[in-house]
Write a structure and sequence with these properties.
Layout lengths: L7 H12 L9 E3 L4 H16 L3 E4 L5 E5 L8 E6 L3 E5 L5 H16 L8 E5 L13 H7 L4 H5 L9 H8 L16 E9 L4 H5 L3 E7 L1 E10 L3 E2 L11 H17 L7 E10 L5 E2 L2 E10 L2 H22 L2 E9 L3 E2 L2 H14 L3 E6 L5 H4 L5 E6 L15 H19 L1
Parallel strand pairs: 4-6, 4-7, 7-17, 8-16
Antiparallel strand pairs: 1-5, 2-3, 3-6, 8-15, 8-17, 9-13, 9-14, 10-12, 11-13
Helix pairs in contact: 1-3, 1-12, 3-12, 8-9, 10-12
The protein binds glyoxylic acid and manganese (II) ion (MN) (2 copies).
The site of one manganese (II) ion has 6 residues, from loops.
Length: 414
């Protein structure tokens, strides 16, 4: 094996520097797509990539590619990457470990005088997180063809500002969204390094996970229109309170997930906004975003159907108008068995024990798996905590992941 000197202290400093680029005060990390923090976060990565003499380009939706040219540029490249956008009230490791960790792997490979035969590319995916447009993995969906350019162009955020308008403002609109889709055979493989976002590796004291399958996510958006009025004057039998319908729907989500027959079904009403939001006024409008997932598609689909029919019944009974939209209903992904074996082999050589895992969180790998053989490397995170400011993986745990990634990329690029 080529000797790889991973500098975990340098990497930790970079992770901390990027964490300071946030829309909220430390320790909270918030970098919502197209915010000033998101723009500066991308610039931070761009600068780092340039210091490594990587060739940087961005596509029409802002996916960033940093390429280390191979000695045989006719061969499809090996890709790695993740995201640097962060949901509100997030931590510093989700996505970031796979981006800055990949750059550290490139740096260590370069320092060991390694020359890849196939090119290696870091991809920083646009909006893995769904915060602005409600749909996760915006960049990788377009790359893999899971989202059509027409549907993407029609997306709009809560202020009604469209993706097209945002692209214009961010300077990505020169090219059409249809240009984002990856050509067949563009990549020979894709491997994403990520924190586990679950408790298993820590609990079992295993430093590395390798992902065999990624659970199937889905997202619903619901607009409920009731009748507003004076909190003192409108008597209870006359009410059409949008919040109460929404509250019943949120409980129906919980019921559907709990009683799906699969322990892996999870349902979350993560967005619930009401208007006018005044204590002495009956809510005339409620807006919900609902996340439903399972490792199996069949139980997820059944739970989804149950939530939709419950929402219709609740709204009918309460005299509430319902506009329901399925933002995404995705299949689970199966990772490439050969790549999983390769990573297990690398772990063996490094003396690191490894566990085959299912990812319950979704990742850009879910959509890259449609483009080329793909899998993920997981590292433990404290208490399995993620999507919280106290998310944590130690420099040593990250170093292990970067070493496995670096050696895996080197093997694949030869
Ligand atoms: C990714 O952030 C997810 O919600 O699984
Ligand atoms: Mn996340
Ligand atoms: Mn992530």
């Amino acid at each position: 094996m080529i000797p790889l000197a991973i500098d975990e202290q340098r990497l930790q400093r970079q992770i901390d520097e990027l964490a300071a680029i946030s829309e909220a005060p430390a320790p909270i990390v918030t970098r919502v797509l197209f915010s000033e923090a998101d723009r500066r976060g991308r610039e931070f990565v761009r600068q780092l990539a340039r210091t490594l003499a990587l060739e940087v380009r961005e596509d029409a939706v802002g996916n960033l590619f940093a390429r280390w040219e191979g000695t045989d540029p006719t061969q499809p490249a090996i890709a790695t990457g993740s995201h640097v956008d962060a949901i509100p009230n997030a931590g510093r490791y989700d996505g970031v470990v796979g981006v800055l960790g990949a750059l550290e792997a490139f740096r260590a490979l370069k320092a060991s005088n390694f020359r890849p035969k196939r090119a290696m590319e870091l991809i920083v995916f646009t909006a893995e997180e769904p915060t602005r447009f409600g749909i996760g993995c915006l960049g990788s969906r377009l790359l893999g063809g899971a989202l059509s350019p027409e549907r993407a162009a029609a997306l709009s955020d809560r202020e009604g500002k469209s993706l097209e308008a945002w692209r214009q403002q961010a300077g990505y609109a020169e090219k059409d969204l249809s240009s984002v889709r990856l050509a067949k055979n563009r990549y020979a493989a894709f491997v994403e390094l990520h924190i586990e976002q679950g408790p298993l590796l820590e609990r079992e004291n295993i430093p590395i996970g390798v992902v065999e399958r990624i659970a199937a996510p889905s997202t619903l958006r619901m607009d409920l229109t009731g009748v507003g009025g004076h909190a003192g004057a409108v008597l209870m039998p006359d009410r059409h309170d949008a919040l109460l319908a929404g509250a019943e729907i949120a409980l129906a989500v919980e019921q559907a997930a709990r009683h799906s027959g699969s322990p892996d079904t999870v349902g979350t009403t993560g967005v619930f906004r009401i208007e006018p939001g005044a204590v002495n006024s009956v809510p005339f409008h409620a807006y919900l975003e609902i996340d439903l997932r399972d490792t199996q598609r069949s139980t997820r689909d059944a739970a989804l159907a149950q939530v939709e029919s419950a929402a219709e019944q609740i709204c009918q009974r309460r005299g509430i108008g319902l506009n329901l939209e399925r933002l995404n209903v995705d299949a689970p992904a199966v990772c490439d068995a050969q790549l999983v074996k390769t990573i297990e082999g690398v772990c063996g050589q490094l003396g690191l024990s490894v566990k085959k895992m299912i990812s319950r969180a979704y990742h850009d790998t879910l959509f890259m798996a449609a483009v080329c053989p793909a899998t993920m490397i997981f590292i433990p995170c404290r208490g399995g905590v993620s999507h919280r400011p106290d998310e944590y993986s130690s420099p040593e745990q990250i170093k292990n992941g970067v070493a496995v990634l670096g050696h895996t990329l080197a093997k694949l690029a030869q």
